[in-house]
Amino acid sequence: MTAQWQKQMQNQVNTLEKLSTYINVSDDEKEAIQSLDTKWGTTPYFASLMDKDDPTCPIRMQVIPSMQEKVNKFGMKDYLLFKENRKTEEVRPDSIARQYTDRIAFTVIQDCGIYCRHCFRKELVVDQDLQLRFDVEEGLTWIGEHDEIRDVLITGGDPLLLSDEKLKYLIDSLRAIPHVQMIRIGSRLPIVLPQRITEGLKKAIGGFHRVPVWINTQCNHPKEITPETEKAVYELMSCGVNVGNQAVLLKGINDDVPTFKELHQKLLRTRIRPYYVFYCEPAPGIDHFRTPVEKGAELIRDALRGHTTGLAQPMYVLATNIGKIPLMPDYYIDDKNDAEYTLKNYKGETTRIPNI
Ligand code: SF4
Questions:
Q1: Shortest-distance atom of ligand 1 to CA 115
Q2: What's the 218 CA to ligand 1 centre distance in angstroms?
Q3: Residue pair 143/180 in contact by the 8 Å Cβ criterion
Q4: Which residues lie below 8 Å from residue 339, measured CB to CB, with a gap of 6+?
Q5: I want to staple 272 with a disulfide (CB 3.0 to 4.6 A). Which of 85, 139, 267, 308 is the partner?
Q6: Burial annotation 26-62 (CB, 10 A radius, 16+ → b, else e)
Q7: Which atom in ligand 1 lies closest to the alpha carbon of residue 155?
Q8: Are 74 and 290 in contact (CB under 8 A)?
Q9: What is the pLDDT of residues 143-190, one digit of tens each?
Q10: d(CA 274, ligand 1 centre) in Å
Q11: How confident is the model at residue 87 (pLDDT cuts 50, 70, 90)?
C-alpha cells in the first residue's frame, strides 16, 4: 500500500499546470518556469500553504524559480567543491565531506521534498551541474576505518526520503561502528512533508540506544509551521529523536524583526529548538536572497536577545570552507579598563562588574 507521504512525492507540484491549481501564477514566475533550465518542485502539502495571489509569499519565493537566479555577481562556481573541502589531499569517497577532525557529513541521496531556490547545494541537487557519486557502502566503510569520527551527519538531498528499510540499515550500520557516538540527520521533511513521520520511520530511527539520533530541520518562516508540523515533531520526540532548526537568513522572507521573532517563538512552541541561523552562502544564482553579513547579528540583537525566551536564541553563523564562524551582537561590552567592565543590555542600560 502506498503511504500518504509517498503519494505526496508521486504527485509533486513541478509543472506550470499543477502549480496553477494552487495559485495564480505571476508573469515573472511563468517566465522563469518556462525559460530556466533548473529542477524545481514541491510537495502538494507545502504548495497548499502558498498565498494564492501574492508572489512575495515566503513559501512561493522559496519554491518557485525566479529570473533573478540568472544574476550571479557574488556566487562562486563549483561552490560545493570549495565549501566542503572536496579538493583536499585526503582520499575520501564523494559521499564524505569533511571540515572538522571528529565529524563528517555523509551524503546519501540527491533528491529532496522541495527544491529550495536558495539552496547552497544548488549546483548538486537543484541545477545538477555537479556530478558526484554517493555510494552508501563506500561511505560506511570509510567511517568504520576512521576511528576519530564520533559524529556523523547524514545529509543529501533529503535523507528521510529513503525508505524505512534503507534508513534502518543505515542507522543500524552506523550504530554498529564502535567509535560513532551520535548521528544527526539534516532533513526539511518535518516542515515540507510532515506526513513522512510515520510509525515505520519512528521504528527505523528512534528508540533508546547508545547512539542517539538528532534531526535538524530547516524552517525559515512562521507560515511553514502548521498543526501537521507540531504533530510530526511531537512524534519524533516521543521516540527519542530531538529536533533542532537551522534557518537560512533570506532577504524578503525572514530578515525583518517581527518575522524573525515570531519564527523563533513559534519554533519553540512546536518543540523545535532554534539551533543555527545561517548566512545565505555565496553559491551561484542566489544573490537575490542574500543580506549584508551583519544582518543576522542585528536581528538577534533587535528581535531575540532580551526580547524573548533565552531558549529561542539560535547562533548566527557564516558556514565557510574552514568551518562555521559565529557572528553575534557585539554590544555587550561597552567599555573595559584594568578595574572594571561596563556591560550594556538589550535596552541600552549599562552596569559594571569588576575586572578580575
Ligand atoms: S531541502 Fe535542503 S538540500 Fe534540498 S534543496 Fe532544500 S536546502 Fe537544498
A1: 5
A2: 9
A3: yes
A4: 354, 355
A5: 267
A6: eeebeebbeebebbbbbbbbbbebbeeeebebbbbbb
A7: 3
A8: yes
A9: 999 999 999 999 989 999 999 999 999 999 999 999 999 999 999 999
A10: 18
A11: low
Residue 302 gets which letter from DSSP? I
> What does the pLDDT read at residue 128?
72
Of residues 123 and 216, which shows the higher confidence score? 216
Separation between Cα atoms, residue 81 and residue 130, nearest integer Å:
9
73 alpha carbon, distance to own chain's centre: 24
Please give the distance, rounded to the nearest whole angstrom, from the Cα atom of residue 130 to the centre of ligand 1.
15
Residue with cell 519524533: 236
Among the listed residues 243, 171, 239, the one whose alpha carbon sits nearest the alpha carbon of residue 211: 171
Cβ–ligand 1 distance for 125 under 6 Å, the answer yes
- Would the CB of 119 count as within 6 Å of ligand 1? yes
CB 114 within 8 A of CB 42: yes
User: Is there a cis peptide before residue 252, judged by omega within 30 degrees of 0?
Assistant: no
- Is the pTM higher than 0.70? yes
Strand pairing class (273-278; 315-320): parallel
pLDDT-based confidence at 89, cuts 50/70/90? Answer: confident
Instruction: Check residue 77 and give its pLDDT.
Output: 87
Mutational pocket test of ligand 1: of 108, 119, 132, the residue with most ligand atoms within 8 Å of the beta carbon = 119
Q: How far apart are the CA of 112 and the centre of ligand 1, in A?
A: 6
| Residue ID of nearest Cα to ligand 1 atom 3 | 157
Q: How far apart are the first and last CA of the chain?
A: 68
- Does 283 sit in the ligand 1 pocket, CB within 6 Å? no
Q: Are 314 and 294 in contact (CB under 8 A)?
A: no
**306 with 277: CB under 8 angstroms?**
no
Among candidate residues 25, 1, 4, 27, the one with its CA nearest the CA of residue 15: 25
Q: Which CATH homologous superfamily contains domain 70-328?
A: Aldolase class I (3.20.20.70)
Between 327 and 132, the higher pLDDT residue: 327
